[in-house]
Amino acid sequence: GAGVSQSPSNKVTEKGKDVELRCDPISGHTALYWYRQSLGQGLEFLIYFQGNSAPDKSGLPSDRFSAERTGGSVSTLTIQRTQQEDSAVYLCASSNPGGKDNEQFFGPGTRLTVL
Amino acid sequence: AQRVTQPEKLLSVFKGAPVELKCNYSYSGSPELFWYVQYSRQRLQLLLRHISRESIKGFTADLNKGETSFHLKKPFAQEEDSAMYYCALTLPPGGYQKVTFGIGTKLQVIP
Predict the structure, then answer these.
(1) B41 close contact with A: CB closer than 8 A
(2) Rg (CA), chain B
(3) Which of A95, A100, B17, B55 gets the highest tally of CB atoms within 10 A of its CB?
(4) How far is CA A114 from CA A17, A76, A80, in A?
(5) Cα distance from B13 to chain A (closest Cα, Å)?
(6) Distance of residue A83 Cα from the nearest chain B Cα, in angstroms
(7) What is chain A's Cα-based Rg?
(8) How far apart are CA A114 and CA A88, in angstroms?
(9) CB-CB under 8 Å, A41 with B32
(10) DSSP code per residue over chain B
(11) Nearest residue of A to residue B92, measured between CA atoms
């Protein structure tokens, strides 16, 4: 079946602009995660959704970052007034917590470059 | 709070040599441990999980609760093992299942 998809695959923007990153999880997966992957920083947790609610937003680096999920499916990560330090690969993952374990299935990522 | 530590950012070994990627965790309960791998230009994917006690692509990992470690091992490294490896921890089923990842170790197998 289809895996996790993300769009766009690449995004180049100017400092100060807003960007929206989209994630389509695997159908039926109730849990959805956003991570940021950058050189030297590894995999940084941003936010976790269970259904449409976000019980853990602790990883969002500032109030410029927000995310929402609608219909228990698609999620959008929004970064306002982008800064150069926001440049990274943003990964989305989904899982089925009702399954036998919590394996996460990752999307291909969105590479964000802030000029 | 749970924490995963991978002390080596880069590990270089020669082809045919043994490999050990270190992972230590901090959590007072009984977590579930995983290794994820990301090959060049591919998605991050699950390699193995401790509850399955499986060997995948020649890799094994044993959970040592006394030392709170979950090191990944392979007796003879192959060039195709070159990748980024992440150790991850999640709480047992039934509660909030946030997955905590380590910073990752880049494995470089030298021909």
Answers:
(1) no
(2) 14
(3) A95
(4) 9, 18, 12
(5) 20
(6) 23
(7) 13
(8) 9
(9) no
(10) --EEE---SEEEEETTS-EEE--EEE-SS--EEEEEEE-TTS--EEEEEGGGT--BTTBEE--BTTTTB--EEESS--GGG-EEEEEEEEPPTTS---EEE---EEEEEE-
(11) A101
Q: Does B110 touch chain A (CB under 8 A)?
A: no
Which of B9, B49, B97 is opposite residue A31, by nearest beta carbon? B97
Find the closest chain A residue to B87 by CA distance: A43
- pLDDT attached to residue B74: 97
pLDDT tens per residue, range A12-59: 999 999 999 999 999 988 889 999 998 767 788 899 998 888 888 889
Which residues is B3 bridged to in the sheet?
A: B26
Please say whether the beta carbons of A67 and B17 come within 8 A: no
Q: Please write the tens of the pLDDT for every residue from A67-105.
A: 999 888 999 999 999 999 999 999 999 988 766 567 889
Residue A41 carries which DSSP code? T
More confident residue, B32 or A11: A11
Q: Which pLDDT tens digit goes with each residue over B5-60?
A: 999 999 999 999 999 999 999 987 778 899 999 999 899 999 998 877 788 899 99
Chain B contact set for A95 (CB, 8 A): 97, 99
Q: How many Å apart are CA B18 and CA B25, to the nearest integer?
A: 23
Tokens coding B102: 């380590």
Chain B, nearest residue to A41 by Cα = B103
Point out which residues pair with B70 in neighbouring strands: none
Q: How many C-beta atoms lie closer than 10 Å to residue B60's C-beta?
A: 15
